[in-house]
Amino acid sequence: MSALPVYEPRRNGEIFHVICCIQYCGSKAFTLVESWNPNNFNARNQLRDDLRILKLPLIKAENVQRCQNHGCGLELCWRNQRYATPFHKKLESAFARLSSTPNLIVPAETLSFQLFYLPVKHAALTPSWNPKWTVRTSLFGQARHLSPSFEGESPAASEYEAESMYETSPVPALPITPQSPYMPATGPPSTVTHAPPPTGSNAGWKYTSGWPDYTPSSPSCGWGGGYGIKPAMYTDPRLVTSPYAPATPITRSPVSEARSYTSEAQSLVSEAQSAARESQSPVYSVVLSVASPQSPASTRSRSPISDTSETLASVCLSEFMYDFATGTNYETRRKAFEEATESLFDAEPQHRPSGQNVPFIDMRRAAIKALCARAECATELEVQLQEAIVTRREAEVLHTRDVVAANTRAQELAVVSLEFNRRYDILENEHEQTKTALAELEEENGRLSGQVESLEQDLSKTQAQRATLHAAWKTNKTKVQDLASQLAAAEDKISKQQVALSAATVRSGRLQNDLASAEEERRKEEVVSARERERWRAEKAQMSAELRALRAERARTVVVPALMDALLQINDLLRVGTD
């Protein structure tokens, strides 16, 4: 449960979520935080005024909730924001101004302002997250001076003691992966219990107790798959940009991998030494000859391996440090190893080697797996214990906060009581003044009663006049109704006449159209008759010309007077017919 690193968006278009925690004290801790309700109009106006003073973006009331893990305050959640937008720039400029400007005017009864950037959406803040910005007002120091356990701290705790408690807690550093070969420790026996300082290729590595929800995807990052173990690991801070995203596999060089395995093996030796010292076992002298009494591992808690940890520790020391090279034969070492690991394999039967004539290296790796499984159980128990301790401290902090709030409330109630007494005196004086004013009003009431009687007489006269006028008004109303009925009848008659006139107009238009069409047909017939007459005259002229030609031809051949007379008669007949 170590504190997570600070997350900050850095890429254009990157989507992130923002939570701003504002802590209050005094009356606002009750009126604004403890009784927060999104439907409360006064609370919303008060929060809106605070945001205007801080020059922070406004927020919807349903996105505001009480802070559960960071003191008495409110959490303001802006979700699905993007990097380098006007909203993001406004947040950064506002907190930069708050942190850099001394004696800045802030809302009353505010203690601190914290801004968290999150890459994924969460319902509420947790204590393991670190803020990007933290700004504290002058009231924060006063409240902390009055209550040492203020803001989640125990009375004797420093500001960052909660985080340091997680970081320095003794977590068993169980070493070599089951796939890796044995790497013997080098150097004098008095120095092999301490891990070498980070130099060379491993200068950028640090020890961590594991990220939350971190699953190694490569054997070089941890224990690999298939063993059900999640021990401590070495993490390169340059390769892990965010603990929330899936981890990137780390590729180690052979030199750095050998160094890490060597240091992890030395951590196992330190744990075995601590277990042997606490149990006062026969191998105590052997452990002292290997590990220094001033080693940090000597202050560790009892090893969680088994009840016979001293015998197992001696065998493990011989295995890891001397590789059973003390001159004893193979069978003797094998028998001693089996006797030493019998209770361990009884506790972890899934790692017991099966078969006959198991190679010694496989037995050694099986013992290492069982040791790691037992240490993993102890690590989980220790984490649960730390969580219980943190929960208890949080409960103590809440209790202290409640006591401080009760004292503050008592002081406020005393002030309210004084205010009530002052208001009571004022109201008593007002009561006396009201009595005097009431007597004056009674005298005025008697004078006004006479005026009311005279006004009632005037009212009776006015009502009689009103009755007379009402009767006349009814008569006039009847006349007006009669005239209105006559006017309606006349309008109805006029409308009927207008309808008849419109019908006659329509019929006249139709007759005119028929007359125009008949005239047009007559004109067309005259044109056709004229054309026929002209055609008939042309044919008649043609026939006359042909007859004349025929007469001339016959006159040449036959000159008979009788024929000439006949032709003349025919010509006359034709002329008469033409006329």
Instruction: Report the total helices.
Output: 11
Per DSSP E runs of 2 or more residues, the count of β-strands stands at: 7
Secondary-structure class: alpha+beta
Radius of gyration of CA atoms, rounded to a whole number: 58 Å
Give the biggest beta sheet: 5 strands, antiparallel
Strand order of the largest sheet: 2-3-1-4-5
Q: Helical content, roughly?
A: 55-70%
Apparent shape = flat
Strand fraction = 5-15%
Q: Provide mean pLDDT, rounded.
A: 70
**End-to-end separation:** 140 Å
Multimeric state of these chains?
A: single chain
Q: What is the N-to-C succession of helices and strands?
A: EHHEEHEEHHEEHHHHHH
Low-confidence stretches: 145-265, 275-311, 320-327
Structure, described:
Among the domains are: 15-146, no CATH class; 200-379, no CATH class. The radius of gyration is 58 Å and the shape is flat. It contains eleven helices and seven strands. 21% of the residues are buried. 58% of the residues lie in helices and 7% in strands. Helix 6 runs antiparallel to helix 8. The chain is α+β, with helices and mostly antiparallel strands and 579 residues long. The strands form two sheets. It has a five-stranded antiparallel sheet with strand order 2-3-1-4-5. Strands 6-7 form a two-stranded antiparallel sheet.
